[in-house]
Design a protein that fits this description.
There is one protein chain. The protein has 14 helices and 8 strands. By secondary structure, it is an alpha/beta fold. It folds into 3 domains: 67 residues, Arc Repressor Mutant, subunit A (Orthogonal Bundle); 60 residues, no CATH class; 174 residues, Nucleotidyltransferase, domain 5 (2-Layer Sandwich), CATH 3.30.420.10. A 6-stranded mixed sheet has the order 3-8-7-4-5-6, sandwiched between helices. A hairpin with an 8-residue loop joins strand 4 and strand 5. Helix 1 packs antiparallel against helix 4, helix 2 packs across helix 3 and helix 3 crosses helix 4. The radius of gyration is 33 Å and the shape is elongated.
């Protein structure tokens, strides 16, 4: 077969073969220079020069020390170095760090990235003693850690749905479209999202009213006796009474969905000065932070479990757990720390 016109190109960057090393040895014995050898083999000058360093050993001939290149020596050195090249697993070098993560995950249930980020921020470990989040998840995938993929609640295959914005059929108050830019970019503190978390689906069942501050991601849980608009609005009024005169400073705006439980929410605008906005129907992504917060709550309060089984104290513990979770988006501060910092700047006082 005539292959003179074949289009297959030789790979440009390849390692020298044993056959090429033997040719180098023969050409050197014939007195060829490094430049001539590189041209005959189609290799760069530096490639041949480095190979001579690799395969040259010191010999004694006629009582004198001489440096001689041997192809088999060059091949042996090459193979030894290839065995040692490549990235090494840091598993054995970071055993203490890994055990710390595994124990912290078992105790808190926080995400791997949140735990690693908080530890990095604390400065308790040197860089060489730690693993990054990606490497830690790679080790989990390989099955070489105590934490398995089945233990990770959010490591699931998800199907994404296209986002659609539908027109409101009912007018409960100001639309989210009217919300100013200062709320959208999360630069200003005091803008909240509100939602309801249902336990057991029953008419007389209590529900959890959740409020989430957009900038700090800090959440508040309010246990409402039912999902009616009167009960939900009453919980907000109770909160306003507890906060007092600073309510309109801390709660500058609240964004809700179009659920009937929020139908009376606009009534608190006149009494508190807090602006109420309503998202578009079937647009949970417009209150994404609140949905994320509710997802954290679901780790501790699963769907279908009656909220009557939880005391107010237990609900507050769930709130504390969520607010003490280090968040990457906050540079691994906890929402509680970020909220207290903003609150002290707003009110000019130190939060203990």
């Amino acid at each position: 077969m005539n292959t003179n016109n074949n289009t297959t190109k030789k790979k440009k960057v390849t390692h020298l073969s044993l056959r090429e090393r033997v040719k180098i040895e023969i050409l050197l014995d014939d007195g060829e220079s490094i430049y001539r050898i590189s041209k005959k083999l189609g290799r760069s000058y530096n490639c041949i020069k480095n190979e001579l360093k690799r395969g040259t050993i010191e010999q004694i001939k006629q009582g004198k020390k001489v440096d001689i290149y041997y192809a088999d020596v060059g091949q042996r050195v090459y193979e030894e170095r290839r065995q040692n090249c490549g990235r090494k697993m840091k598993l054995l070098d970071c055993e203490d760090f890994i055990e710390h993560i595994e124990e912290a995950y078992k105790e808190t249930g926080y995400g791997i990235d949140a735990i690693i980020g908080a530890i990095k921020k604390s400065g308790n470990y040197d860089e060489e003693e730690m693993l990054c989040t990606k490497t830690f998840y790679n080790y989990i995938d390989k099955g070489i850690l105590k934490i398995k993929n089945i233990d990770l609640p959010l490591k699931l295959k998800r199907t994404t749905k296209p986002k659609r914005v539908r027109e409101n059929k009912k007018k409960l108050g100001a639309s989210i479209d009217d919300r100013p830019e200062s709320i959208e970019d999360r630069e200003e503190f005091g803008h909240w999202e509100i939602d309801v978390v249902i336990g057991k689906k029953s008419k007389d069942e209590p529900v959890l009213v959740t409020l989430l501050e957009r900038k700090t991601r800090a959440g508040i849980n309010l246990l409402s006796e039912s999902k009616t608009k009167e009960a939900v609005t009453n919980e907000i009024k109770k909160l306003a009474a507890q906060v007092g005169d600073n309510f309109s400073k801390i709660f500058k705006s609240i964004t809700a969905d179009n659920g009937s439980e929020f139908a009376d929410l606009s009534k608190i605008e006149k009494s508190t000065g807090t602006q109420i906005y309503f998202a578009h129907p079937y647009s949970a992504f417009e209150r994404g932070s609140n949905e994320r917060y509710n997802g954290l709550i679901r780790r501790l309060i699963p769907k279908g479990k009656s909220l009557q089984e939880y005391s107010v104290r237990a609900i507050k513990r769930v709130q504390e757990w969520c607010n003490n979770l280090p968040r990457k988006i906050l540079d691994y501060l906890t929402p509680k720390q970020a909220f207290e910092k903003e609150l002290s700047l707003l009110l000019g006082t130190t939060i203990s």
